[in-house]
Amino acid sequence: MFKDKKVVFSGVQPSGMLTLGNYLGAIKNFSAFSDEYHCYYCVVDMHAITVRQNPAELRRRTYDTLALYMACGLDPEKNVLFVQSHVPAHAELGWILDCYTMFGELSRMTQFKDKSAKNADNINAGLFTYPSLMAADILLYQTEMVPVGNDQKQHLELARDIANRFNGVYGDTFVVPDPYIAKTSARIMSLAEPTKKMSKSDENENAVIRILDDKDTVIRKFKRAVTDSGCEVCRGEGKEGIENLMSIYSAVTGKSFEDIEAEFAGRGYGDFKLAVGETVADSLAGVRSEFARLSADKKYLEDVMAEGAGEAARAAQRTMSKVRRKLGFIEPKRG
Ligand code: TYM
């Protein structure tokens, strides 16, 4: 499909209804790479089972996440869209990289610490080695750039360390990837607790804007967003709530913080919240209607995932042959 282009890879877990954080921090930026890069965008269902999932819901969300990728502008003719478990090389390289990842490194991952605190009854080995599977996702495709939100930065640094370690032992095997982190939307915060990241799994629905929320719901949630007792739309000490709304508004409209301050000077929080709510809802309207159309066509989604998995598997095999040779594994005879 795309010879001689550099590679972009990213993934989203089908572990909950996707949020405005997933959209602004990651998915919205994906299509910008489609013309210049070979882009692989994956629905990482194997990562999702590090936390208990209801099987029927996981299946539905896997279809939905793929449909949402396309509804957000990813054309399957220009991007390889696929499901992680359809390309077994992810698990295979994941295991190999486990053997080149240190216990101490994994112990330092803040996401592991957070998730094990939240799932104290299920601190499984997969939750711990999650970052080496993520490194495998990326390194399998000789990826140069990984568009992600700020919360994945530490995992990306570890993927780079693993690649460098492996290359150091066996000679050049993997491209060492760089993160691509959008400036204003790297970390969209909860609307209820603006010092906490907006998260798919938040139990408080008012804290989270879902990409598929309807217009009234989006506006209502923004109206209820926690701010402070002041009235000036600007950044500053104790104004994390307003700053979060400014980041969201900036990411959607492209306006700078200074422009936003000028636009709402003397107008108070009520006006500002309403403007943010309407702008966000309008920008998501097209995504919602495309999603409704695409998600109803399961056969089409299955065709897209099959095509994507075939293409991804071929690229992955090229890396796996190299890895096997370097490690001293015997290349299995095929056919
Ligand atoms: P996940 O599924 O938690 O999130 C998907 C993407 O959304 C970004 N994101 C945010 N960005 C800004 N503000 C927020 N509040 C916010 N919440 C989420 C995430 O940074 C991510 O880019 N481990 C990954 C999935 C993954 C992956 C990969 C990503 C697996 N393998 C390989 C890149 C490359 C994750 O759990 O993302």
Written description of the protein model:
With 335 residues, the chain is mainly alpha-helical. Helix content is 53%, strand content 7%. It has helices at residues 20-30, 45-48, 55-71, 89-98, 103-107, 110-118, 125-139, 153-170, 215-223, 240-253, 257-263, 268-295, 298-327, and strands at residues 7-12, 38-43, 79-83, 145-147, 178-180. A 3-stranded parallel beta sheet has the order 1-2-3. Strands 4-5 form a two-stranded parallel sheet. α1 (20-30) links the parallel β1 and β2. α9 (215-223) runs antiparallel to α12 (268-295). The radius of gyration is 21 Å and the shape is globular. The model has no long low-confidence stretch (mean pLDDT 96). Bound molecules: tryptophanyl-5'AMP. Residues 9-13, 21-22, 25-26, 44, 47, 134, 137-138, 146, 148-149, 151-152, 155, 185-188, 197-198 line the site of tryptophanyl-5'AMP. Tryptophanyl-5'AMP is lined by residues 9-13, 21-22, 25-26, 44, 47, 134, 137-138, 146, 148-149, 151-152, 155, 185-188, 197-198.
- Indicate the low-confidence ranges by residue numbers: none
Biggest sheet statistics: 3 strands, parallel
Strand content: 5-15%
Count up the helices.
13
Question: Can you list the strand order of the major beta sheet?
Answer: 1-2-3
| Ends apart, CA distance between termini | 25 Å
> Which small molecules are bound?
tryptophanyl-5'AMP
